[in-house]
Structures
1.
Amino acid sequence: MSKQVKPTPVTTPAPADAEPYEILGRVAAPAALPRIQTSPPYLYMFHPERWTAMDDCDDGSFHVVPQLAKLPLLGGVSRVESRRDPQTGRVQYVMDNSRYIKERRGYIVLDPTVGGVRYCVPVSVEGGTAHVTPWEHPAPGSALVGRTRGYVAWLQSLVADGILPPPAAVVLDKLEQDQASILSGLVDRVDRNPSLRGQIKRTEAAIEAIRAARMKGAA
Amino acid sequence: MGETYASLLSDGHRLSQVMAAQWQYLLNDPFRLPAHPAFVYGGRVNMRESNVVRVRRLGLNGRDRMQPRADGAAAGVTDIARGYADVTVSAFALARKATDLAKLTDGLGEFDAALLAEDFFASYEGALVDLVANLLDTFGTPIGTSGSNMSLATFLAGKQVMEVANNRGPLLFIGHTQAVTDLQNDIATASAGAIQWQAQSGEFVSRAGGAYKGSFLETEIYQTSRSPSMNAGADVASAFLGAGAIAWADGVSPLDFPSDQVYVGPVLMERNRDSLGAETTYVGHANMGVVELDDAAGLTIQSDAP
């Protein structure tokens, strides 16, 4: 005869007794801001000799794209002057002299909105305001900046639409030489430091992209 | 970076706390402009009828070579090559304000005028470095591989470009903090040959903290976290600078009310009393500007961002 086993009674405690402690109160803290450096607004500049091979968000697929430089809208830098409009109270950046010295060096200063994209975005951060691209996403309370794809495609569209000229063959030659020089320096030392393999792979991919761009230009 | 408070008791900074008998500085980028030949001082704009200083460059000191002259023929005249850059000086300021209640409860000298003066001077030097840092991504044709850490290979390639462009040493390398520490790591773990056994390699990789990282391969190395990002945040900018790469100029604000104003170096510090609000404002004023003097005297380096 089997012994009857009585099931252990299960009791559901009242909500107040669910845990042996209570959490009381909560100080409403101000919203955390990204902990990245403040930075001034900027205009992008293109120079015919400034090209680079880069992948979008480290996807490993390299493309040769213009390497834009920033012309900071910051009084005292590169002849930028700032003043406050007495009528509107807004800060005005006087760029005539700054544009002149940059254009004399071969730069093309881009408008704030190019190809339908306003590329300088203000973000409130600890200590003030940072200015980033639409593809950068500073996180609250963090010094890390997330990135989303689109920058490379935007640059490619600027070239495809004729807003920026394609790279000259001599520029691609120089770009390849520079990468080859870096690659040889890495390859020479990889046997002592295998962790360099990642950089070697990226540099090789960059060189492949440069060669592909040359072939495309020659075709 | 850290939290900042206005100097009002009601902001909670010390409304309900007992202060410890000491305080510490918040973290800060300590870089100060080095006295290096890469920086050419154009002078002060005071009493010059303009806020723009022109820094000239002349093709002397052997730039033009002697030409062969046939016997009996007249020598051809060679013009002196000229270049220049104009520096526009702009105004800068930092203001602090404290209520009487905040000051009278201050037991550690937080609002001490001498301490604020020191703060203003450090802030002036920091602002000047910020201006310089904003130039670092515009020199020449950048080298380095996007998304790859700064490496000894890139450093040597950059040094080579500077040498080929006839830059005079000692060179200056101003690197983003991430780039300099990546370079230290690369040298520490992967250097070989002539670099591996040099005492300076060990000294360079050993340095921690601060802005000045010493001299490595006849290049003075500074780091700053204020240099611009590149390639939509994928990379950061660093730069090699040779002699005469950057020109800067400044101006000193006039002393109009000596009873309430004092000079702290080139900074004019003044105080302003609001008797109705029982508040005292301290302001430091400075005037400065920087510009790229010679594009070929610098080289931008791109390397992976933090």
Note: Residues 64 and 78 of chain B are 8 Å apart (CA to CA).
2.
Amino acid sequence: MKHRAAIAIFLTLLVGCSQKPKAPAPAAPTAYGTAIVLSGGDKQTGAVGSILDQPLVVQVNDAQNNGVAGAPVWFSGANGVSFDPPYAITDSSGQVSTTVTLGGMAGRYRLTAYTTDASNKRIEVKGDEIALGYQGTLGRALNDRYCSRCHDSESTPERVSNYDNLSTKPHPFSEGEALNKLSDDDLAAIISHGGPALSRSAEMPPFGYTLSKSDIQALIAYIRAVSDPPYRSAGIVYAKAN
Amino acid sequence: MSGAKDTFDRLRRMFFGDSARAFGTVSLLLLISLAIAPAKDHFNEWRRYQRQYRRFLKTRADGATLEKHFEPGVQQIWLPEQGVTDRCTTCHTGVRETSLADVPTQPFRKHPAIPHTLNEFGCTPCHRGQGGATTVEEAHYSTLAWEQPILPAKYIEAGCGQCHLSAMEGTPRLNAGRQILKRYGCVNCHTVKLPDGTRVSPTDHPPSLVHVGDKTTREWIFAWIKDPKVYSSTATMPNFQFNDADASDISAFLIAQSTPAPASHAAALPVATADPTAGASLYGQSFCASCHAVQTAAGNLVGGDLGPELTKIGTKVKPQWIQAWLRNPGEYDPETKMPHYRFTDKEIAILSGFLQAKADTDFLANVHLTDATPQQIAHGKQLVTEYGCASCHEINGVKKPENFAPELTRIGSKALAQLAFAPGVSHTIHDYIAAKVRKPRAFGPGLKMPQYTLTPQQVDAVTTALLAQTDRAQTQPAAMRTAAVHESDYKPAGKAGRLINDLRCFSCHAINGRGGDMAPDLSWEGSSVQRAWLVEFLKNPNTLRPALIRRMPKFNLTDAEINALTDYMMTVYQTPAFDRDSITESQFTPAMREQGRRLYYGKFACQSCHIIDNKNDKGYIGPALWSVGSRLTPAWIYQYEKNPQALRPGTLEPNQHMTDEEARALTAFLTSLKSSGKQAAKK
């Protein structure tokens, strides 16, 4: 009798402990496409480790460029970046969206979304997201406060852009083609002393008496972080021995 | 059995057969045992990293320079007064090397630029982990002897919050988390003390329920308690997940405890007018949307969040109540942020009719409550008491409980043994806090903490703010802290003071360190504006900033009230920095004005942000300046141009570093820009 009770308790415990909450099994693909494209959520900016505001959305298409429902999509990325969900099946419009959490290092994160075609061949598309470290985060706050009213041409009801009102159009900070040619010192000079410091428009006022040196460094870090194409520092150049 | 014995005998003879063999064997064993310690040292993890680092340096152009900086052996940052003994730099060898910023991963990447140096602060005060350890496992992760693993990067701003008690521009997540603690009522139940000993005080304003029966019906209370988000997507009240019976009993009790408000309800109230056009226009003119949001047909919320969302307000409030409220909100709720608008009876009729029409007929369609028995009411009271409703709301017959929920002042360093973890939550303090905020009732049956509806970003933010509440923050030297900015308890005196309170100026404006940030700080308004302009503005406030949505409402003040307010502001709200009358227009010559005009359009390009000439100027970041000469005093204009931040901290206008002569000329020009109040209003 005693033994039976013990066994019963043991079995109860066994059953009780083995019931782990299980995530629902991912659905199996029912269709395959021939192409995959990004349709949203690319090139976002967020602090390190943060969940990006917009989901990353990709679409799987067939040969006629129509969305394919029921196709499998996997997401991957390096350095601690994570996806929720990391795998999904496209919806009726052929799209899948996933929430992206950036990794712990500041910098650019290359994300890959891939699907397979009917012959199990991998088809992929790549996107970039930008993680800001301390300087970039501070720079972004300063940008939102002092710069974006003119440098960002997008208007929202809460913040009307002044871009269109300026006779010399300011460079959006993502405009790497132009801004990457300026050295950090040039950028610091323009921010500190205004446009005329580099013979540019006086509509860019001087901020050197308003912002601290470290604030200006933070702004430059932000400008470099969001640049597209990405900014590459010249670094230290050493003469080579022959 | 004998086989084993034979083998043993053979081995014994081989190693200990005679004294020479025995001596040799023992010597060998001794040598081996002596070699264990140096070998362990040689194969140490940190030596491996240092060897890796030196190999890595050979691959870099500036490797020779970096090699010179490299110091072999265990490195340590020792800060006894902060209790820091950090050996992290033993493996993180490149953490101070500027040129290693491009290394993709740790351990050899340079630390990102922050305002602090490693040598002054060490590593673990912000990152946590076990500073004294020299293995990856012990330094980074929880071990049996160490409960504080490295904080995930998303919570790193918690480190800042241990010393920095107020919001900073570089720590948006920490700021947001602290805001949530105050705004979502967390600190109404939980005590959270900052290291300077002050208690974090709530900024939400849960309504008093002592007259709730005047305001709404039992059915609405029932539906609201069941799920506040169904009524309003912006509700900050959490969901207590009551079943129907409990919610019914609570609603019965709340109606039963309600007493009639002593307001002027007896006065004849106008009948609500159903005039949607006039209603919408009055709603717009009164700038209700500066504080209240309404959901559009497309599902977008339009409006501010200082007051409650009004999308379904007609479903909630009783017609009489909304009229009495519009007449004077302070009579029902002395603590309300809503100003006393001084609406006429006709306006009240129109506006109440307009609001009453914002109803959702489906909302209460399925709520059918039977009259409650005394037992049910008593049960409702018991639930209200047990669930701490009075921590937030004033309720007749239920005392506000003290320390209703556990104090969270040191939650960031709480010993894990003192916590009960929900299944599936990893045993770290950060995962515990995040899981608890996300789904409190998952931690066990019978828990009282309600379910909040927070986005994952908000959960990260609250977790960050709570992780800043550590033992270290509470015990470190006071000199480490930056002072917290606390709101002052400034109260303006006399008749004007009563008016300022009646109009709830502090809801939007700050004066002498108290008040909101929606509208300009008025502390020095008397030095800034001219009396005639202020009188005209209070009569008919028209915005100075064309692009602004949030605007000052018109309060229908009497001339006597306007005079009282104006006199007070002109006399009391003056800056000590300069004399308002120190510069007069008579000092300016036409030549100065012309020089000022050239500076305005040339050197300083003021037109990029300000408008003088409606046709040619377009900038609308700053206020329009077409009548600035009738608005501001010359002394204010001059001083502002010399240093805008000194007069308005945080203003967007950069300090242009003008010479005295330039500032004087610009002041001469701007002072000459005048137009009558009527013209300005037209534009």
Note: Strands of chain A lie at 35-40, 45-47, 56-61, 72-77, 82-84, 87-89, 95-101, 107-116, 122-132.
